TrEMBL record, chain A:
Protein name per UniProt: ATP synthase subunit b
Origin superkingdom: Eukaryota
Compartment annotation: Mitochondrion; Mitochondrion inner membrane
GO molecular function: proton-transporting ATP synthase activity, rotational mechanism
Pfam families: Mt_ATP-synt_B
GO CC, alphabetical: mitochondrial inner membrane; proton-transporting ATP synthase complex
Task of the protein: Subunit b, of the mitochondrial membrane ATP synthase complex (F(1)F(0) ATP synthase or Complex V) that produces ATP from ADP in the presence of a proton gradient across the membrane which is generated by electron transport complexes of the respiratory chain. ATP synthase complex consist of a soluble F(1) head domain - the catalytic core - and a membrane F(1) domain - the membrane proton channel. These two domains are linked by a central stalk rotating inside the F(1) region and a stationary peripheral stalk.
Assembly and oligomerization: F-type ATPases have 2 components, CF(1) - the catalytic core - and CF(0) - the membrane proton channel. CF(1) and CF(0) have multiple subunits.
Keyword annotations: CF(0), Hydrogen ion transport, Ion transport, Membrane, Mitochondrion, Mitochondrion inner membrane, Transport
Signal sequence, renumbered to the chain: none
From TrEMBL, chain B:
Protein name (Swiss-Prot/TrEMBL): ATP synthase F(0) complex subunit f, mitochondrial
Biological process per Gene Ontology, one example term: proton motive force-driven mitochondrial ATP synthesis
Subunit structure: Component of the ATP synthase complex composed at least of ATP5F1A/subunit alpha, ATP5F1B/subunit beta, ATP5MC1/subunit c (homooctomer), MT-ATP6/subunit a, MT-ATP8/subunit 8, ATP5ME/subunit e, ATP5MF/subunit f, ATP5MG/subunit g, ATP5MK/subunit k, ATP5MJ/subunit j, ATP5F1C/subunit gamma, ATP5F1D/subunit delta, ATP5F1E/subunit epsilon, ATP5PF/subunit F6, ATP5PB/subunit b, ATP5PD/subunit d, ATP5PO/subunit OSCP.
Domain of life (superkingdom): Eukaryota
Length: 228, 79
């Protein structure tokens, strides 16, 4: 059953942050009676009012035997004396010890909180740095584009060189082919002419030419001897 | 007339003496109501004397003294 008049989360999270504990509790006088009682009686009876009330009440209880004095009374008196003495003597020490324990707990919790805050702060700064780094990605892309352009250019030039070399090889081949052909024709013609000439020299002509050469040589040697 | 008409949530300190009977009749006496009243009283006592940074001895000793007095009252007829 949902009470329709109950407000449902009308404000922000009402549970956090938790309000801190109050420093000191309510005042208690003599360890037994809250201070509010004394303040309640102060306007009418002044400072001694509650004490008068206490004394009167005690005497009334004793005289009417509403509080009976027996062996338990003596035991209670001894025990209470010892307890009060112990509290008065060791109270502050125990309080200091408890406070120290509390302080340690608080300090460790606070340290944890501070560490977490610090970690988050550094994380925030790292994130900002990353954002700044991300802004530089335009430079990165420009460099990459330049790289790719250079690669393309180099590739193009290589292929151009290859084409040039291939064409030159083919042309050289054609030139060499023509040269070879002409040379072969020349050689062949020379050989053919020589062969024909040699064939046409009959043995008779050979003897006559040899005799003529010998006569010429003799004549020349004579003229050479004369010159020397 | 706020003094003449009792609302459900007036505190005991604000109730006039003549209206005490009607105020008492208005209270919630179902088991759930009684339990709620006990819980509220305990929370008030705790938040005042025990759930504090530097608690004193009075918070505990008042409970023990109340227990002593109550047990004396219950065992009075045996004395």
């Amino acid at each position: 059953v949902l009470h329709t008049t109950r407000p449902l989360h009308t404000t922000q999270q009402s549970l956090a942050p938790v309000p801190p504990l109050p420093e000191k509790g309510g005042e208690v006088r003599h360890g037994l009676i809250p201070e509010e009682f004394f303040q309640f009686l102060y306007p009418k009876t002044g400072v001694t009012g509650p004490y008068m009330l206490g004394t009167g009440l005690l005497l009334y209880l004793l005289s009417k035997e509403i509080y009976v004095v027996n062996h338990e009374t003596a035991a209670a008196a001894c025990i209470l004396t010892v307890i009060v003495y112990a509290i008065k003597k060791f109270g502050p020490n125990v309080a200091a010890f408890a406070d120290k324990l509390n302080e340690e707990k608080m300090a460790s919790a606070l340290a944890m909180k501070n560490d977490t805050i610090q970690t988050l702060q550094t994380a925030i700064e790292e994130e900002k740095k990353e954002q700044w780094r991300a802004e530089g990605r335009s430079y990165l892309f420009d460099a990459k584009r330049n790289n790719i352009a250079m690669l393309l250019e180099a590739n193009y030039r290589e292929r151009l060189l290859t084409v040039y070399n291939e064409v030159k090889k083919r042309l050289d081949y054609q030139v060499a082919l023509q040269n070879l052909k002409r040379q072969k024709e020349q050689d062949h013609m020379i050989q053919w002419v020589e062969k024909n000439v040699v064939q046409s020299i009959t043995p008779q002509q050979q003897k006559e030419s040899i005799a003529k050469c010998i006569l010429d040589l003799k004549a020349l040697s004579k003229s050479a001897h004369a010159a020397v | 007339l706020p003094a003449a008409v009792l609302l459900k949530d007036t505190k005991l300190m604000d109730v006039k003496l003549g209206q005490l009977g009607s105020w008492l009749a208005m209270r919630d006496f179902t088991p759930g109501g009684i339990l709620g009243a006990i819980r509220r009283g305990q929370e008030r006592y705790y938040n005042k004397y025990i759930n504090v940074r530097k608690g004193s001895l009075g918070g505990l000793s008042m409970v023990l003294a109340g227990y002593v007095i109550l047990s004396y009252m219950w065992s009075y007829s045996h004395i």
